[in-house]
Amino acid sequence: LALLKDSKLIAKALEYADQVTPAERHYIYSLKAMLGKDYDRAIGEYEQVLEYYPDEKSALYGIAGLKNFQMKYADAITYLRKVVEIDSSFAPAYNLLTYMYDYTGDFENALLAINKYIDLAPDDANPYDSRGDLYSRHGMLDDAIASYTLALQKRADFYASLEKLG
User: pTM of the prediction?
Assistant: First the structure.
């Protein structure tokens, strides 16, 4: 709730942090650090979760997202590869992988990642929007328009694609 609804709710989570498991406590501390834009500390807290659960995909994915914020794209890719090793059906990892590969100049792997995301979530609008972003960044405007249009066919109120088409 602190992340999605009201960042002030993190104080309530901290108040009860001594009553949860150590891994849960580190998730709470990571969120607090993230909300304060202390990404190094947030990563450290996720790493503490991994001490308890080395295959915890949420912690690995969290680190990858923070590495993205820090523009450490190659590091993010490393963590995302671990995520998909653990759970090859975790669609959000492929979305982030698409952008990370593209930011590192690896269009071929970006395209493979977005196509895997589409395979995993064919009825969602976001994969097509992300593919539109990829195409757009590479000057493939007709393909980008087609992808954004497909996203809107999946969900007519998907404003990200609507805005990009506008």
Answer: 0.89
